[in-house]
Task: inverse folding
């Protein structure tokens, strides 16, 4: 849709019907009622399964319902001529199911069809820095001009429509093709279909349902076959005592050469299977028996599987077997060059993975029907027990455990001292030393995985690192991967966060490259140089855009109420950026990411300007260099502290020397 900013009416609309890659486009202009009737006739005649668009959940569908109610007759059935898109007969008794209906703040239900918003799929899958259609299209297809948005000023749509309606219509049609291209690129529909096949649910449930609904589809079927009563969904308070999480080992700051990374295969599902953890096996009467599986900390007891196999362990065992099968078939198909079979098995193994990983979250919740407070706690107890036991044995054997995080263990490999950690040229004399260190790390990792694997705790040798670095904070580390592929591994640092800005992320990656090459002083010098560049305003503003999701409650008239979510919304930069977008006539959807530039960081609240350069082609805001210099120094100083340079010293460009420097 393209809509009037002045009057809120629909100026024109476009739709593209896609049948197996064959597409037909349809344009609608004229009176608003004629546009709505034309869209409705097209949908009922062409009978699509999925309806998509970019931000249809929060813009197109609400606007269509609003305009149908505003310009159409009052009765629900008569309004169906304007928005009766449901796959039901157009008769008065079906009037309620003809119109799209919003189930909650985001999800729409449309009888017999599936609304699938391309914006939400992008947000969930790609997590882009900014979420406008222009930005996403340029990110996915930077060199394909046919997939870039046309140059129409959306903030002046009334003037644009009056002056050049044909160009606006072309702009509208282009915006209709792009969501289809995005869904195809992300394989969104195929993934929903695969999830539905694995969960034995409808595709609609896989696309718009919750994880508890996916799991219900499997658990209730099995319970029914086993004549086990199915309880109602739990009611009452949703908050309860927090379950202790996985074990995280302290990490020593600095560079650690040649590290083998061991990973527990499907850790939580494996524990649930091995210990038979399920609401149907939980011992609730206080009885004790030597055959019980007893959790290591709280002593919670579960019947052994020979006495009664739990519903959930049985389902998880079946899912594990299915995933292993699909992974084997995927490998066979790739080897034989059968692309269709490879695609199918890849989608199915991924769907099984998603479903298996959902079990713990659902069963550790307070509201699911087959749950109990002890279930989630027992799972994490065994996880912590397993990993601590292995770490204790490793340290007893003289192996240094560098780090451990929930389901992974990082262990120093016994390579020759002074083995190079950066891959040298193959004609270099030390290349043989590097290759020998890599080979020994691989052998070491395989030996450890074989030694410590047991039922319910299958260890896999996942990764070999030539270097590992952390500044000493848990869940923040980087590593140089040399097997099974060669890449940089980054966890926890701002480079993984979208509410940072690109200069910080890029500088951090360059720093890590230098640190992992054992050149920490060069990393410090790089940091100081970037801070100086920002202070001198030598950095382009686009590299300083900060982005963050902004919530709000959508009113029926399309406006957004921020006070329903935030106590003092005007104090928050992302709310003010969202309001600036709205004032400029640009789209904003509750939950979307908005970008802004800080123009005065000294004020309280700081002054910002929304980043609207991409959409409006305006000059970029003039940024506050001191704010960004301090932000760089604070984030990067956490890293350089491992080498004796803190935030203030980076800003000053020099360091106070101590006796230890001499």
Result:
């Amino acid at each position: 849709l393209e809509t009037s900013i002045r009057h809120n009416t629909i100026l024109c609309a476009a739709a593209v019907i896609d049948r197996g890659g064959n597409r037909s486009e349809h344009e609608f202009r004229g009176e608003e009622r004629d546009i709505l009737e034309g869209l409705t006739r097209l949908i009922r005649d062409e009978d699509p399964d999925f309806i998509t668009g970019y931000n249809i959940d929060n813009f197109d569908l609400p606007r269509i319902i609003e305009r149908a109610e505003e310009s159409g007759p009052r009765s629900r059935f008569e309004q169906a001529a304007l928005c009766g898109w449901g796959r039901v007969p157009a008769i008065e008794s079906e009037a309620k199911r003809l119109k799209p209906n919003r189930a909650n703040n985001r999800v729409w239900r449309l009888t017999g069809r599936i609304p699938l918003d391309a914006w939400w799929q992008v947000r969930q899958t790609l997590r882009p820095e900014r979420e406008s259609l222009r930005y996403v299209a340029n990110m996915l297809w930077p060199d394909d001009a046919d997939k870039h948005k046309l140059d129409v000023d959306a903030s002046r749509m009334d003037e644009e429509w009056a002056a050049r309606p044909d160009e606006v219509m072309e702009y509208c049609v282009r915006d209709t093709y792009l969501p289809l291209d995005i869904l195809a690129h992300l394989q969104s529909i195929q993934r929903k279909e695969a999830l539905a096949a694995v969960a034995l649910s409808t595709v609609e449930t896989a696309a718009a349902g919750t994880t508890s609904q996916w799991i219900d589809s499997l658990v209730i079927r099995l319970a029914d076959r086993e004549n086990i009563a199915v309880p109602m969904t739990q009611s009452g308070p949703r908050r309860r005592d927090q379950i202790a999480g996985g074990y995280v080992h302290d990490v020593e700051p600095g560079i650690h050469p040649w590290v083998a990374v061991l990973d527990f295969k499907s850790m939580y599902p494996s524990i649930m299977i091995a210990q038979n953890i399920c609401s149907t096996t939980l011992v609730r009467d206080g009885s004790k028996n030597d055959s019980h599986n007893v959790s290591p900390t709280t002593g919670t007891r579960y019947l052994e599987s020979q006495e009664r196999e739990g519903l959930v362990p049985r389902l998880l065992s079946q899912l594990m077997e299915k995933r292993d099968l699909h992974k084997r078939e995927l490998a066979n198909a790739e080897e034989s060059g059968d692309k269709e079979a490879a695609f199918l098995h890849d989608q199915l193994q991924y769907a099984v993975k998603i479903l298996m990983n959902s079990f713990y979250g659902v069963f550790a919740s307070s509201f699911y029907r087959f749950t109990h407070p002890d279930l989630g706690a027992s799972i994490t107890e065994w996880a912590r027990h397993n990993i601590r036991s292995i770490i204790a044995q490793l340290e007893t054997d003289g192996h240094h455990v560098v780090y451990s995080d929930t389901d992974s263990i990082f262990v120093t490999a016994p390579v020759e001292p002074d083995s190079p950690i950066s891959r040298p040229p193959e004609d270099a004399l030390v290349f043989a030393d590097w290759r020998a260190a890599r080979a020994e790390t691989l052998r070491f990792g395989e030996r450890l995985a074989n030694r410590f694997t047991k039922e319910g705790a299958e260890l896999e040798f996942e990764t070999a690192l030539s270097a590992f670095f952390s500044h000493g904070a848990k869940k923040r580390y980087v590593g140089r991967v040399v097997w099974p592929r060669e890449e940089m591994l980054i966890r926890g640092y701002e480079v993984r966060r979208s509410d940072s800005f690109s200069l910080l992320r890029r500088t951090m990656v360059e720093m890590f490259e230098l640190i992992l090459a054992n050149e920490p002083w060069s990393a410090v010098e790089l940091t100081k140089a970037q801070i100086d560049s920002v202070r001198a305003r030598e950095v382009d503003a686009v590299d300083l855009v900060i982005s963050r999701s902004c919530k709000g409650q959508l009113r029926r008239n399309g406006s957004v109420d921020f006070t329903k979510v935030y106590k003092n919304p005007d104090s928050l930069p992302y709310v003010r950026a969202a309001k600036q977008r709205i004032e400029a006539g640009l789209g904003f959807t509750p939950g979307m990411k908005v970008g802004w530039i800080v123009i005065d960081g000294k004020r309280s609240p700081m002054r910002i300007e929304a980043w609207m350069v991409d959409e409006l082609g305006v000059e970029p805001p003039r940024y506050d260099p001191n704010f960004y210099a301090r932000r760089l120094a604070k984030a990067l100083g956490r890293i350089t502290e491992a080498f004796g340079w803190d935030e203030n010293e980076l800003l000053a460009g020099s360091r106070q020397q101590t006796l230890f420097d001499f």
Q: What stands out?
A: Residues 658-662 have pLDDT under 50 and may be disordered. The domain at 541-622 is CATH 3.40.1820.20 (Ribonuclease H-like motif).
